Amino acid sequence: MSDARTIQLPAIAFIGAGSMAGAIINGLASPVVDVEGGIRVTSRSAATAARFAELRGVSAHATENEADANPEAVRGAKLVVLAVKPYQVPDVLAEIAGALEPGTVVASVAAGVTVATMEAAVPASVAVVRTMPNTPAQVGRGVTGVSGGTRATADDVALVRALFETVGAVVEVPESQLDELSTISGSGPAYVFLLIEEFTKTAVAKGFSREQAELLVGHTFLGAAELLAATHEEPAELRRRVTSPGGTTEKAIEVLQAADLSGLFDRATDAALARARELASGA
Ligand SMILES: NC(=O)C1=CN([C@@H]2O[C@H](COP(=O)(O)OP(=O)(O)OC[C@H]3O[C@@H](n4cnc5c(N)ncnc54)[C@H](O)[C@@H]3O)[C@@H](O)[C@H]2O)C=CC1
Ligand SMILES: O=C(O)[C@@H]1CCC=N1
């Protein structure tokens, strides 16, 4: 049964069942999403496939005990999501190319692997869309960059958008910007977790128990993010409201700013960008 709010998606095959595929499939499990034709998932290990097979509407197969699991999964699927490591994409495409039906849309989440590389590896009747999601997709709070390839129609891109909108927001960008986007939102959750880890260590060093430190830091991050989302104020304004003139926060902010946080983020994201370019060249 479906009503006006139900999101209808055609048969989808996920090649690779790791963190990223798991996060997206979790979103598809929503009661308002109906994947007609079902969700097929493949992994290398049978144990992983067995875990995915327990999910509603999912059939899962492992290459370690079914050599044809990948070509079988894509046969008849309208949308094929490549969720393997970047260096594995060429081999997977070579394996499935002959089984892709005309009109199939192949959407890759792999960092760095270009549209040109993928288009060259599949039949001309198959469209390619490059994407860059992030792991908060697992809780419906992802943000995904999407770039259509040269053969992708507006409907093809809309289909990929619809998939990723089940797990958060979608931003369409030209492919030339996708690696940059990856350094911000693709990798970004890791930067936030690192800050939380370090801040928690500081709280422990100030004499709080591990449990207290996690509560203090965790709620501070969550509370600040929710305050930002709820008020729609600029972060600089919300920071000003914490920073009493002549008070304590002002002293801490002075120390943080003296460490050139902005230069640090520039250098960190430049390093991620350089690695994306290496991945594109197969390194
Ligand atoms: N983890 C993240 O935050 C993000 C990852 N990505 C991209 O997602 C892709 C996957 O990353 P993760 O999920 O983190 O990796 P992962 O290592 O957790 O998952 C990879 C999966 O691919 C499977 N696999 C490997 N070779 C296979 C084959 N030939 N056939 C079928 N399955 C095969 C593995 O068994 C594993 O389940 C990467 O290309 C990465 O660049 C993109 C955005 C964010
Ligand atoms: O670290 C990586 O290569 C992937 C892409 C963005 C997040 N994880």
UniProtKB/TrEMBL annotation:
EC number: 1.5.1.2
Subcellular location: Cytoplasm
Alphabetized InterPro entries for the sequence: 6-PGluconate_DH-like_C_sf, NAD(P)-bd_dom_sf, P5C_Rdtase_cat_N, P5CR-like_CS, P5CR_dimer, Pyrroline-COOH_reductase
GO molecular function: pyrroline-5-carboxylate reductase activity
Pathway where this protein functions: Amino-acid biosynthesis; L-proline biosynthesis; L-proline from L-glutamate 5-semialdehyde: step 1/1
Gene3D superfamilies per UniProt: NAD(P)-binding Rossmann-like Domain (3.40.50.720), ProC C-terminal domain-like (1.10.3730.10)
Uppermost EC category: oxidoreductase
Source domain of life: Bacteria
PROSITE patterns linked: P5CR (PS00521)
Keyword NADP annotated: yes
SUPFAM superfamilies: 6-phosphogluconate dehydrogenase C-terminal domain-like, NAD(P)-binding Rossmann-fold domains
Ranges where the Pyrroline-5-carboxylate reductase dimerisation domain occurs: 175-279
Annotated protein name in UniProt: Pyrroline-5-carboxylate reductase
Lineage: Bacteria, Bacillati, Actinomycetota, Actinomycetes, Micrococcales
UniProt gene name: proC
